[in-house]
Amino acid sequence: MHNGWSIFFWVVYPYVMLASFFIGTFIRFKYFHGSITAKSSELFEKKMLMVGSIVFHVGIILAFFGHCLGMLVPKSWTAYFGITDHMYHLFGSLIMGIPAGLLAFVGMAILTYRRMTVARVYKTSSLNDIIVDWALLITIILGLTCTISGAFIDFDYRVTISPWVRSLFTLHPQWQLMATVPLIYKIHVLCGFAIFGYFPYTRLVHALTLPWQYIFRRYIVYRRRVNAY
Questions:
Q1: 29 in Cβ contact with 36 (< 8 Å)
Q2: Is the pTM of this model over 0.70?
Q3: Sign of the CA dihedral 77, 83, 85, 87?
Q4: CA–CA separation, 115 and 132 (whole Å)
Q5: Overall average pLDDT of the 120-146 stretch
Q6: Residues 151, 135: contact at Cβ < 8 Å?
Q7: Are residues 120 and 162 in contact, defined by beta-carbon separation less than 8 angstroms?
Q8: How confident is the model at residue 212 (pLDDT cuts 50, 70, 90)?
């Protein structure tokens, strides 16, 4: 029974969430492209929106690439370039990870506080908007807690969580690696996959709509009309 739950959480559940992400995103872009937008509430409140949005986006982008580095780059690769465990933990997790997590947390806390306390913003928010804000805030808090606690516990996620994540993409999930992972890390991972699975059905999907056409379009030339006297 114990193995059954482990297989569900670390094999079935991640694949269901990833399938939801890719299939849901395809359907959203293919058949509901007009609904892909992050509706603005700037008219109702601007100051907290500006500060929270900028701080959150900077933090979450840094955290995202930090997760990609930590999860997808094998430990042997960094060791090959002379990066010791101490160096990786000091610069990667503490010096870079904590500031990125704090920025994401502060920004998301401001945005969530704004949505829940500014009456006009709250009344125009959908249930989806509220769920997304709280889900992101909780996941960020869990991730920041994991990063900070890493300085006090003897645990190396690069020999457990990282190879497990990579094994999912090679279609040979090594669910046994998650057996010794601390509970706070497990909850963070589950919440992270939940956000991936829920992603296509929320306003978060607008993050994938980068304006690539501006890179390839022809220049627009403006000419000043000279007044004739």
A1: yes
A2: yes
A3: negative
A4: 11
A5: 93
A6: no
A7: no
A8: low
| Unique residue bearing structure tokens 């370039």 | 81
The amino acid at 45: E
The pLDDT value recorded for residue 94 is: 77
Expressed in angstroms, the distance from the first to the final Cα of the chain is 91
Kindly indicate the confidence band of residue 225, based on its pLDDT and cuts at 50, 70 and 90: low
The residue with greater pLDDT, 41 or 202, is 202
User: 65-77: string of b/e by CB count within 10 Å (b at 16+)?
Assistant: ebeeebbeeebee
Whether residue 149 contacts residue 184, with contact meaning beta carbons closer than 8 Å, is answered with: yes
pLDDT, residue 214, reads 61
CA 1 to chain centre: 32
Residue 59 · residue 105 · CB < 8 Å: yes
Contact 6, 178 (CB under 8 A): yes
Q: What angle do CA 146, 20, 108 make, to 5 degrees?
A: 40
**Residues 72/166, Cβ–Cβ less than 8 Å:** yes
Q: How confident is the model at residue 165 (pLDDT cuts 50, 70, 90)?
A: very high
Is the dihedral angle over the CA atoms 69, 72, 75, 78 positive or is it negative? Answer: negative
Structural contact between residues 37 and 203, judged by C-beta atoms closer than 8 angstroms: yes
CB count within 10 Å of CB 108 equals 24
Closest CA to 193 of 168, 170, 217, 172: 168
